[in-house]
Design goal:
Helix content: 25-40%
Distance between the termini: 55 Å
Number of helices: 18
Structural class: alpha/beta
Strand content: 15-25%
Length: 531
């Protein structure tokens, strides 16, 4: 099957405007029905059973406003018995694939569907969704503006709205209804999603937490971004959409909720209907892979598949004592969820006879022996590339001793301030050999084509840079200096919590005032007053 313009569009220069944190306000999407689409989209529909629901989904897709020559639909049968079939009412370019028997689950099926199409954009859609006429178009208009967006449709539920649906009736109804509101009047949505969207100005002020509302029922992204993150995890059968959303965020993606892209879910999903049971099942799988999910950082001493912080310590030319002072302080800190990479000349640790205490490589040998059994440390001869799945990277030079709370203070400050880079500064503004990088911020800077020399400046524009006084993260470096007492730290933590609370309140009022002055309606302000 050949689609009009399906492949060549990807070769055009992709738009890459600078978007700060998750504030996509700089983008101005065209009005629906008043623009000329260029990008091709592959709608991937993983399905297991449910032929009747699939028939309705394809009927609604057959009535889309997006040009048929730019849209391909790939239905992936994930081992249904009896096998699924394509109904008569379906989009012009629709294919049915059978997923390999080497795996199972939505992630496995989606991977097969994406591999089978060559479109510019991938839109994942549940097989039991009836979508409005502008569903695909509403999401696609954003992808023409920037190539690192994740656009999410709005999912609604309603028993009455779904009663008596037939493929022919759905196709006719969708074709006539200009908006999803006309198509599904009175349908309810996910309350927890609605609350987050309301509290974050539709995710514009959500910062690093924007990915948390990502669901796979209806969402789209550029194919290059989807492939860059490794696609949807084929070994997860529940929570695979949340895990994908996290990895997309880590690569610098911006999340956009599109209210005009409405879809009616036929029945309430298991994750909503049996929420506690679904969370119980998915928790171990997600906690291993998503450091920000649930409360794993409160569990001391655990080791996980993906750590919360990657620490890089350059040991080349440094003494055993200096390195041990720095690394042992990290390992003894109150955040155990770290991985320490010791960069050094480990090739010098050779077998055979050597001169013990007069060995020229004595410090290298001692360090290797000292940490070779520590499960949270690893050895590397060159600085490793940043792990895209780890939220933060901490770079340290030996000879400084961190306070026990250093990692927690650094990461907490980064999240509280929304910073992409946190540094410490000593007396007289002297720079300390310590910096904490937010992986997502630096990933976005790289995606925008910023070279190494300009990366810090780009991150400052994209996320912001915050500077800490050395006393907040480092112990005394001079003889006779006192380490701040424990009571001081408690007061600091309380002050941080209070500051966060008041800063959130200020931001809430700023959003409502801005919305009012920009003509988005006085109802937003009145809604805030009622609360």
């Amino acid at each position: 099957m050949t689609l009009v313009q399906a492949g060549p569009v990807r070769s055009r220069s992709a738009p890459r405007p600078l978007i700060r944190r998750n504030d996509y306000s700089v983008l101005e999407p065209p009005a629906l029905g008043e623009w000329e689409p260029e990008l091709s989209v592959g709608v991937v529909v993983p399905a297991y059973g449910g032929q009747e629901g699939l028939d309705l989904t394809l009927a609604s897709l057959a009535a889309q406003s997006y040009p048929g020559g730019l849209m391909e639909v790939v239905v992936v049968d994930d081992g249904s018995d009896p096998p699924l079939r394509l109904p008569p009412i379906r989009p012009e370019h629709t294919r049915l694939l059978v997923a390999s028997e080497k795996g199972w689950g939505p992630g496995h099926a989606v991977a097969a569907g994406v591999a089978a199409c060559s479109t510019s954009v991938v839109l994942r859609l549940d097989a039991d969704m009836v979508v409005g006429r502008r569903h695909v178009e509403a999401q696609m208009r954003w992808h023409h503006l920037a190539d690192y967006l994740v656009v999410m449709g709005r999912v609604v539920f309603g028993e009455e709205q779904a009663r008596g649906f037939t493929p022919a009736g759905v196709h006719e109804h969708v074709s006539r209804a200009e908006t999803g509101e006309h198509l599904f009047p009175g349908a309810g949505g996910m309350e927890w999603v609605a609350e987050i969207l309301e509290g974050t100005d539709d995710l514009r002020s959500a910062g690093h937490r924007a990915w948390e509302v990502f669901t796979g029922a209806t969402a789209s992204t550029r194919r290059e971004l989807f492939e860059a993150v490794g696609g949807m995890s084929p070994d997860l059968v529940l929570g695979e959409d949340s895990e994908l959303g996290y990895r997309l965020s880590q690569r610098g993606a911006v999340f956009v909720p599109e209210h005009e892209s409405v879809g009616l879910h036929l029945g309430v999903p298991t994750t909503e209907r049996r929420g506690e049971e679904a969370a119980r099942y998915g928790r171990p799988f997600l906690e291993n892979r998503v450091p920000r999910k649930y409360t794993r950082r409160r569990i001391p001493g655990r080791t996980w598949q993906v750590p919360f912080v990657d620490v890089v310590v350059d040991t080349v030319g440094r003494t055993f004592d200096d390195v041990v002072e720095t690394v042992d302080a990290l390992l003894a800190g109150d955040v155990a969820d770290i991985r320490v990479t010791l960069v050094g000349e480990w090739w010098r640790v050779t077998p055979g006879r050597y001169a013990t205490i007069d060995d020229p490589a004595v410090d290298v040998r001692l360090l290797h022996e000292n940490y070779r059994c520590e499960p949270r440390t690893r050895f590397a001869e060159t600085e490793p590339e940043p792990d895209p799945d780890v939220p933060f990277r901490l770079l340290l030079s030996p000879g400084t001793r961190q306070r026990r709370c250093a990692v927690r203070v650094l990461t907490g400050t980064a999240d509280r301030e929304g910073a992409g880079l946190v540094r410490s500064v000593g007396a007289g503004g002297r720079a300390e050999p310590l910096r904490l990088e937010r992986t997502a911020a630096f990933a976005r800077a790289r995606h925008l084509g910023v070279d190494m020399a300009g990366r810090d400046a780009a991150v400052a524009r994209l996320w912001g840079v915050h500077v800490l006084d050395h006393a907040e993260v480092l112990t005394a470096s001079k003889k006779g200096e006192e380490v701040p007492p424990k009571e001081w730290h408690k007061k600091m933590c309380k002050a941080e919590r209070d500051a966060t609370r008041w800063r959130t309140e200020v931001e809430r009022w700023e959003r409502r005032i801005r919305a009012l002055t920009q003509g988005r309606g006085a109802w937003l302000l009145l809604g805030g007053l009622r609360r």
